Amino acid sequence: MYNVDNILFSGNDPRIIARIMDPNYLSRFADTFRNVKLTIQRHGPWSSAWVGEAGGAYNSGSRLVSNTFLNSFWYLDQLGMASKYNTKVYCRQALIGGNYGLLDLETFIPNPDYYSALLWHRLMGKGVLSIDFSGSSFLRAYAHCSKHKVTTYSSPFVYSFSFSI
């Protein structure tokens, strides 16, 4: 196992919103995923990459950012990018705790990232498809084979998701 803690920024970073919405900043994580994939291919092909303790921001996340819809841009991009580079496990920092928990600390009502994780888990299968896109860097696109066949006689669906930052 090769464990990479993928942290986007400090929870008290005044530029946190600008960083989440900056495709060039978000794309820097591709280098980390690519380097881990190459390291595993060269030196440990029997192992797999994991992302551990991902929550986007350390110091318990960023109040009014990490637990909002805005953070889902980062989270879904991370899930897509991790899959693209053959990361086998993506561990979220906390189910409950800090501002980056998937559930609200006081009410236990799911935060938006909970629903992003739920949809990802229910729809996206293990087959990751390559997408070549030469348009705006503000548009992110990822595709997977569906997790389950729709009927016993059909092939798996392909699910793609894209979003504009």
Chain-wise SSE layout:
Elements: E1 2-4, E2 7-10, H1 16-20, H2 23-43, E3 49-54, E4 56-58, H3 69-84, E5 87-92, H4 112-123, E6 124-129, E7 139-149, E8 156-164
Parallel strand pairs: 1-3, 2-4, 3-5
Antiparallel strand pairs: 6-7, 7-8
Helix pairs in contact: 2-3, 3-4
Walkthrough of the structure:
The protein has one domain (2-123): Alpha-Beta Barrel (TIM Barrel). It is an alpha/beta fold and 165 residues long. The protein is built from 4 helices and 8 strands, in the order E-E-H-H-E-E-H-E-H-E-E-E. The two termini are 32 Å apart. It has helices spanning 16-20, 23-43, 69-84, 112-123, and strands at 2-4, 7-10, 49-54, 56-58, 87-92, 124-129, 139-149, 156-164. The strands form 3 sheets. A 3-stranded parallel sheet has the order 1-3-5, covered by helices on one side. It has a 3-stranded antiparallel sheet with strand order 6-7-8. Strands 2-4 form a two-stranded parallel ribbon. It is 33% helix and 29% strand. Mean pLDDT is 85; it is low at 1-6. The longest helix has 21 residues, at 23-43. GO terms for molecular function: beta-glucuronidase activity. InterPro entries: GH (IPR017853), Glyco_hydro_79 (IPR005199).
* Gross CATH architecture: Alpha-Beta Barrel
Oligomeric description of these chains:
single chain
Helix content: 25-40%
What about the largest sheet? 3 strands, parallel
As laid out across the biggest beta sheet, the strand order is: 1-3-5
- Beta-strand level of the residues, as a percent range? 25-35%
What is the fold named in CATH at topology level? TIM Barrel
Order of helices and strands: EEHHEEHEHEEE
**Given the helix and strand composition, which structural class is it?**
alpha/beta
Kindly report how far apart the N and C termini lie: 32 Å
Mean pLDDT: 85
How many domain units? 1
Unreliable residue stretches = 1-6
Q: For this structure, what is the CATH homologous superfamily?
A: Glycosidases
What is the helix tally? 4
Number of strands: 8
According to CATH, what is the class? Answer: Alpha Beta
Radius of gyration: 16 Å
